[in-house]
Amino acid sequence: MEKKEKNLIEQYDPGMRPNETFDGSIHWYSPMEQPFQISGLAWFAQEKIYRRLPTLPSGATPEAVDRLANHTAGGQIRFQSDSSSLSVRVKLKGKANMVHMPATGQCGVDCYVGSPDSLLPLRYVNTTKYDLTLTEYECALFTNWNASMRNIVLNLPLYQGVEEIWIGLDEGATVTAPPSYASGKKVVIYGTSITQGGCASRPGMAYTNILSRRIPLEFINLGFSGSGKGEPEVAEIISQINDPACMVIDYEGNCVSTELFRRTLPEFIGIYRGAHPLTPILVVSRIRYAREELTPHLYEARIERKRFEQFLVNELREQGDLNIYFFDGSGSLGNEDFFECTVDGSHPTDLGFLRMADALEPVLKTLLL
Q: Could you tell me which residue ranges the SGNH hydrolase-type esterase N-terminal domain spans (predicted)?
């Protein structure tokens, strides 16, 4: 019965069908090879695997964080080509299995293009739509375009691991390196499931990926769903990322208690500051949840934690750390209709992520540019 209904929808509406494969002549490239560039995965250059943390960290890593590090949130494949078609072949570590996040966001790849030799702006093109019962798929993202050079960015899955990915271009197409970032520095963002991208409809709509299309720097997404809790061992690993332009700390939403937050946040900041004495640190309080006005304890807990974050940042600044800042995230979804911006009361839709990016963009630009 379920399969029949699915076939009927696809029969009635071709737009609901999986992406077709390209039947022309394709040359398949590994993005691990030059001139392709993998961005957003801080240890990729050394390890050559699609993972957000090192496979053998210097210290212990919480099991949940270690597993979630295989999810490729924030990972991007960047290159330029004059190919008239673009296909991807993907081998995932597992199937789409989330109850409130589309397979296109959990396991899909989406594509942006721009003018050659220009980092920005980028324009959305297409997302892989595939049979979500599979762990391997092939999709054409565009076909029959003019054979002119363009800058191309592919955003990798937010909530699933990637074993392999291949890029399919026209036989004989030119492939060159992507435009250079404004500098070699990186914006590092540590946080929760919201940081990781839950529950964007496609990878490019995670707020870190949106910001990467507005600020010409590499963004490192270290959101760990339900598991980014400010552990000191994770702070030690993150502090090993070289050349940070800014460190954004946004894990309040994962706190099981204000008491734990009071213990972990100062230590996390202290560990990071020990490795990067002058790097700007931005402490971000969490967004408002839709049910707060109906559930007073949620509101009271958020206000209590926000006040602690403000106090801690002010205290550190008074002690001489003038490169640490506080950002009040409670208005990031807007004030009049913030409750319309989530899937489930807490995890943003694409609208919610767009508003979060809008709120953070001017602050980050002030700190970075």
A: 26-174
